[in-house]
């Protein structure tokens, strides 16, 4: 039982680090240049899926 608690505590401590990594990824994605709007039909269709 004690081991489980220690393991859980380690996971808890890892969580904020994971969260900041995710935030960094999101920031990177937001900084990427947006697609041009005057693209072909296919890419417009693809983009609709991701909205």
Topology:
Elements: H1 2-31, H2 41-50
Region (Disordered): 1-20
Write up what this structure looks like.
The chain is mostly helical and 51 residues long. It has a domain at 1-30. It has helices spanning 2-31, 41-50. Residues 1-20 are annotated as: Disordered.
Instruction: State the separation between the terminal residues, measured CA to CA.
Output: 46 Å
- Give me the Rg, rounded: 20 Å
Strand content: under 5%
* Main pleated-sheet profile: none
Please state the average pLDDT score.
73
Low-confidence stretches: none
Number of helices: 2
Shape designation: elongated
Structural class label: mainly alpha
Q: What is the ordering of alpha helices and beta strands? A: HH
Number of strands: 0
> How much helicity do the residues have?
over 70%
Region (Disordered): 1-20
Defining traits:
single chain, about 50 residues, mainly alpha, 2 helices, elongated
Entry summary:
By secondary structure, the chain is mainly alpha-helical.
């Amino acid at each position: 039982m004690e081991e489980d608690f220690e393991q859980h505590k380690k996971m808890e401590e890892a969580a904020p680090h994971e969260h900041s990594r995710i935030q960094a990824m999101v920031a990177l994605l937001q900084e990427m240049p947006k697609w041009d709007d005057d693209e072909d039909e296919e890419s417009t269709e693809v983009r609709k899926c991701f909205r």
